[in-house]
Amino acid sequence: MKLKTSLAVLLALSVSAGMAQDKFEISGKLPSAGKDKKVILSYVNSAGKSVKDSALLKNGTFSISGTTAFANRAYLELQPLKRDTTKRWPKPDFQEFYLEKGKYAVKGADSMSTASISGTKSQAEYLQYQQEIGVPHKEYQKLTARFMKARSAKDSVEMKKISAEAKPVMARMEANLDSFIFSHPDSYVALDAVNDNKTMVIDPATFDRYYTPFSKRIMASFSGKKLTAKYEKAKQIAIGKTVDFTQTDDKGQEFKLSSLRGKYVLVDFWASWCVPCRAENPNLLKAYKQFKDKNFEIVGVSLDETKAAWLNAVKYDGMPWIQVSDLKGFKSDIAVKYGITAIPQNFLVNPEGVIIAKDLRGEDVDKKLASFIK
């Protein structure tokens, strides 16, 4: 019994030793923040779990220490000890920063959101990233506000004008984003920028340029492992891959994709609440009518969570093709397996079940199908 206990202790110690224990120390000064307040730190601990810690603000100063691993986004928030009941939704006073091993200095007056946070390489890179992306992002936010106002007024001329103005701003945002990513291959901030902005729909044919430059140090992090997992899932539905899945159809019967071997099949991921998906349905219907008698079928995979919403949308949009769903939303077995985190998405498989095209939209559906189905 003692031997087993000793072995268990040794095993626990070895696991703990193999886990990064990066100590951080945060010292802050907010001399005009007032009394009866506390600072909340939300961060990722050394085990990769999201946790919170707090410290009282005493004479305008505070300090918090702990352990983390790698560098991850964290948040410092200044809160009153007692909630102001006169305000139903008090505006939070917080700031995002990058927390890693090292010492941090927080310097401000009466607010956390306007304080400066400095101290480590990753935080310096984050401030640089904010500066490079910030200018076009603010321009885009102003254009978005104008667009929403024009939309409320149903001013189609103004909406069209704003959309034209937004294109070069969006292009500049994308160029600045790529510039930062490619110039920082050993940066946790750049890694998160890829996770946040480049992985909604991963095309393995073009994604390598965002994935391979990162150093081994960066890819060993929690965010690095997350990116690798996403990429590996996406590779399962790359062009040239054979796919199959089983799902329940709208009649409650089991459907297997491979039951359609011998046909060209467009597998379309959609949902009743997805406006862009619904906008594509007329294009799919046109293609279905044109090719349904020429060895072609469509399988709609709904990421709805309620059966009524799903089936009502099928009926309203007049979709006569095969419909399947397990009503789990983005936690659908198929979505989880293939890493589907954004819709609409689709892929075309040939009669052998091999993917030959992806993400067909608008007139491209007809053109692509016509190039295969004679």
Automatic annotation (TrEMBL):
<dbReference type="GO" id="GO:0030313">
    <property type="term" value="C:cell envelope"/>
</dbReference>
<keyword id="KW-1015">Disulfide bond</keyword>
<feature type="signal peptide">
    <location>
        <begin position="1"/>
        <end position="20"/>
    </location>
</feature>
<dbReference type="GO" id="GO:0016491">
    <property type="term" value="F:oxidoreductase activity"/>
</dbReference>
<keyword id="KW-0676">Redox-active center</keyword>
<dbReference type="GO" id="GO:0017004">
    <property type="term" value="P:cytochrome complex assembly"/>
</dbReference>
<dbReference type="Pfam" id="PF14289">
    <property type="entry name" value="DUF4369"/>
</dbReference>
<dbReference type="Pfam" id="PF00578">
    <property type="entry name" value="AhpC-TSA"/>
</dbReference>
<keyword id="KW-0201">Cytochrome c-type biogenesis</keyword>
<dbReference type="InterPro" id="IPR036249">
    <property type="entry name" value="Thioredoxin-like_sf"/>
</dbReference>
<dbReference type="InterPro" id="IPR000866">
    <property type="entry name" value="AhpC/TSA"/>
</dbReference>
<dbReference type="InterPro" id="IPR025380">
    <property type="entry name" value="DUF4369"/>
</dbReference>
<feature type="domain" description="Thioredoxin">
    <location>
        <begin position="236"/>
        <end position="374"/>
    </location>
</feature>
<protein>
    <submittedName>
        <fullName>Alkyl hydroperoxide reductase</fullName>
    </submittedName>
</protein>
<dbReference type="GO" id="GO:0016209">
    <property type="term" value="F:antioxidant activity"/>
</dbReference>
<keyword id="KW-0732">Signal</keyword>
<dbReference type="InterPro" id="IPR017937">
    <property type="entry name" value="Thioredoxin_CS"/>
</dbReference>
<dbReference type="InterPro" id="IPR050553">
    <property type="entry name" value="Thioredoxin_ResA/DsbE_sf"/>
</dbReference>
<dbReference type="InterPro" id="IPR013766">
    <property type="entry name" value="Thioredoxin_domain"/>
</dbReference>
